[in-house]
Amino acid sequence: xxxxxxxxxxxxxxxxxxxxxxxxxxxxxxxxxxxxxxxxxxxxxxxxxxxxxxxxxxxxxxxxxxxxxxxxxxxxxxxxxxxxxxxxxxxxxxxxxxxxxxxxxxxxxxxxxxxxxxxxxxxxxxxxxxxxxxxxxxxxxxxxxxxxxxx
Length: 151
Description:
Helix content is 28%, strand content 23%. The protein has a domain at 63-149. The protein is globular. The termini are far apart. Strands 1, 2, 3, 4 and 5 form a five-stranded antiparallel β-sheet that branches. The chain has helices at residues 2-19, 123-131, 135-149, and strands at residues 65-75, 81-90, 96-104, 112-113, 118-120. It is built from three helices and five strands; from the N terminus they run αβββββαα. The longest helix is centred in the first third of the chain and has 18 residues, at 2-19.
């Protein structure tokens, strides 16, 4: 039953987007809208200033894929440890964009993201990029994610 509802919702969404003049890849199996709200107070697209997520350009596409989870954890100045994950998704031009996510190992803090860290021609190239990141790169990316979050 749920699969039928999901298929119906997907088709309705596809028809709605096509009706708005948005090109929809027929191979698309699912949709998500990523940070697609505009805030009255700032006029900026993205999540509210208090959100744990960095504002990203609004877009509709495939769900992001987990590319790699790293053994190396990073730690904030307040002592909170974070697990580091590399994510990627296909962009509208068919290339893959990759970014890093930092998840706290406890509920003590919020999830942090970097902006786009890389752009690769395919998923295999993105996975290769992610596999070569060393601890020093992850630490630097964590510092960037903290700056973006305003901490």
